[in-house]
Design goal:
2 helices, about 90 residues, about 0% strand, mainly alpha
Length: about 90
């Protein structure tokens, strides 16, 4: 994955985390039916969002590395075939 794509993903995660902190603060100060569940969901998302982003970036990195390896192997195989025919 390109460095710029990782930076965009990280920046969007930071923005979402700030919004979650604000939402958590507002929900903790207000008292309405179901606010306990919303507060718990905000806390869970605050922990889960960075973990999910890390897993996403890690998985995409592995997928891209495998794709590059397969392309390099295909190119090497094509080079071998070209050398044999010459």
């Amino acid at each position: 994955m390109k460095k710029k794509a990782k930076q965009i993903a990280a920046l969007s995660c930071v923005i979402l985390l700030v919004l979650l902190y604000v939402a958590t603060l507002i929900v903790s100060l207000l008292d309405f039916p179901g606010s306990e569940k919303l507060f718990a969901a905000c806390l869970l998302a605050t922990v889960g969002l960075p973990i999910l982003l890390w897993i996403y970036i890690w998985a995409i990195g592995i997928w891209i590395d495998r794709k590059k390896s397969a392309e390099e192997a295909a190119e090497a195989s094509a080079d071998d075939v070209t050398e044999e025919t010459e």
